[in-house]
Design a protein that fits this description.
alpha+beta, two-stranded antiparallel sheet, 10 helices, 7 strands, 72% helix
């Protein structure tokens, strides 16, 4: 007996539903396997990228060791020629930095016996060079500059430095080769990731078209777009970190050139101008250093931490133990576009306080405060010096620093104020919480 067409239609629909259910189950299983595979590939790529970054850190550390030793040599020559004790501190800082950087490189290359052997040789040569520097400075400190120059002319220090440069070049060449290999591996993995994504998208489209023809494929596009946006965000973060790191290094190189020019300047006015320029360059360099170390906090600048670090560094650079520094700052994150103007303003205010508000015959006190002020932020720097001349206004002064502060304050959309204090001078910059 013939079957009812209605029954046939119902059976067909039931069969279609069963086939769709089986296909959907297969789709879910395929999706799970695809996601697991993609997760493994992404972890593989992340590991490869980390190794590239690791090699870059090693090369940067090697370069920093050589730079620190060069700074120690420059300070040694300055001390032999002038006898100024400030160069002794510079040699000590350069020595400490060279040893710290070398220890860091040794830790990063602990799994590389060949590099460890080179580092042991480099450490020995560095010890020889630093010993010769100590002998030269000891002779100069004993009042025997001729003996110090004689030690330099013996050439042992130059020979040690040349050997150090040769060793550093070997270390860097080995790391450059590793970096190239690891970068190629990361690039290959990146291609595999892209291929996997394309294959995954194709499989997803095919399975869903067969299983549910009526589903809007925009969801797939949204998922793919979200994945790409996450990848783009990760790439942008990495690129910004690299840009900030390179800008910081470039500013350090410029600062080194300006520092050398300052030391060679014969006129006090030129030396003072170069020192101020160097201070401003270093202030901006510290901004990029902090942004580079901020990691995943893209576009944010911790103004409180920066203000405290800069204040302590500038006071320490004066070489006076009697200066009392009081900091009352709050950890406030600002937009990165506010970082450079605020850093330059803070540098100018603290430098002026150290220059004009710290007489040699009194116990100076400098206070730096930063925090919210209603809907604004307030940065103030005060001292207990002799105060300001009568009728002083920032707009009428011929001081380039004061005019720069006024212009930078306007750039922040704020105002530059002179606060009333019983003694000394106090300046404040008030600016909106956001200039966006």
């Amino acid at each position: 007996m013939a079957r009812d067409p209605v029954e046939l239609s119902g059976a067909d629909r039931q069969g279609a539903r069963e086939r769709a259910f089986r296909l959907l189950a297969g789709t879910v299983a395929a999706l799970f396997l695809a996601f697991a595979s993609l997760g493994g590939v992404f972890l593989w790529y992340d590991n490869a990228a980390n190794w590239v970054s690791h090699t870059h850190q090693v090369r940067s550390g090697i370069s920093n060791v050589l730079q620190a030793l060069a700074d120690a040599e420059s300070a040694q020559r300055g001390y032999v020629l002038t006898g100024d004790r400030i160069f002794v501190d510079q040699v000590a800082r350069a020595r400490a930095k060279a040893k710290d950087e070398l220890d860091t490189v040794a830790r990063l290359t602990a799994d590389n016996p060949e590099q460890q052997t080179r580092l042991d040789t480099l450490r020995a040569q560095m010890g020889i060079r630093l010993t010769i520097i100590d002998q030269t400075m000891a002779a100069r400190a004993a009042g025997a500059p001729v003996a110090a120059i004689r030690i330099i002319r013996e050439g042992r220090g130059i020979a040690a430095m040349n050997e150090i440069r040769r060793l550093v070049a070997g270390l860097d060449a080995a790391e450059a080769s590793l970096e190239s290999q690891r970068a190629d591996r990361a690039a290959t993995i990146r291609v595999m990731v892209l291929i996997s994504l394309v294959a995954f998208a194709a499989l997803l489209a095919l399975l869903f078209v067969k299983a549910m023809r009526d589903i809007n494929l925009d969801r797939e596009v949204e998922s793919d777009t979200a994945e790409r946006l996450r990848a783009l965000l990760a790439d942008r973060t990495l690129l910004l970190d690299e840009v900030n790191h390179r800008v910081k290094n470039s500013l350090q190189q410029i600062a080194s050139v300006v520092r050398l020019q300052s030391r060679a300047a014969a006129h006090p006015e030129a030396k003072d101008a170069l020192d101020k320029t160097l201070s401003r360059i270093m202030a901006v360099g510290r901004v990029h250093e902090q942004l580079y170390k901020a990691g995943s906090q893209v576009g944010q600048f911790d103004a409180g931490a920066y203000a405290q670090a800069l204040a302590h560094e500038l006071v320490e650079s004066m070489g006076r133990d009697d200066i009392e520094l009081v900091t009352q700052v709050q950890p406030i994150s600002l937009d990165v576009r506010q970082a450079a103007p605020l850093a330059l303003i803070l540098n100018e205010l603290i430098t002026n306080a150290l220059k004009y508000g710290c007489p040699a015959d009194e116990a100076p006190r400098i206070q730096v405060t930063f925090g919210p002020d209603g809907d604004d932020y307030r940065l103030s720097v005060s001292d207990n010096g002799n105060g300001l001349p009568k009728g002083f206004t920032p707009k009428k002064t011929k001081s380039l620093g004061m005019r720069a502060i006024d212009a930078l304050t306007r750039q922040l959309g704020g105002r530059f104020e002179i606060e009333d204090v019983d003694r000394g001078a106090s300046f404040a910059v008030v600016f909106p919480r956001s200039t966006v």
